[in-house]
Description:
The structure is a single chain. This protein is mainly alpha-helical. The protein has helices at about 10-20, 30-40, 70-85, 95-110, 110-145, and strands spanning about 155-160, 165-170, 175-180. The chain has a three-stranded antiparallel β-sheet. Strand 1 and strand 2 (about 165-170) form a beta hairpin. Helix 1 runs antiparallel to helix 2 (about 30-40).
Amino acid sequence: MARFTVPRHPTREELQGLLNATRGTAAARAVHMAVLRTLTKAEYSPALVGHFALASTAYAHFTSPIRRYPDLTLHRAMAEYLKRTNNGQDRPKSEKQRHELGRALREALPTTEELVQIGRRCTQTEENAEEAERALRQFLVLQLMAEHVGEAFDGVVTGVSPRGVYVQLSKFLADGMVKAEDLPGT
């Protein structure tokens, strides 16, 4: 059995190396899920923290339907900048011009405190949506599994704890826990 070690605070490159080393192996699904679970949850904020996985220091996200308001907030700021710089053609050339543009943008756009509040609300809304999605998925999985009580399925162990093992069924991608006392030989 292969053994992998990861530093306490791995870099993006070290995590990518682990993912590459396990790709196509029996350990791939469990390792990839474990890596995914270790990553911190994104949070909306005006702070410029970049994107760890993309190794980008300047980052704004434009994909998820749940992110419509954060995208709109960012679009408004970009539109204001483009309006005041002739679509980026007349960027400020001197420190004084940069200062004047900055002041004008600060007056036209939400304050940092307002952006923090917007970020918190958007983060909470996204968490609520994810929780509702999880609950619906769990309900549908349980409904499906009720039709297969007593059947045996192939699965992959995705986690281990003193209480038991976490297993994902290969056929349904349903996750669950097998209690330690229900495991054979215990």
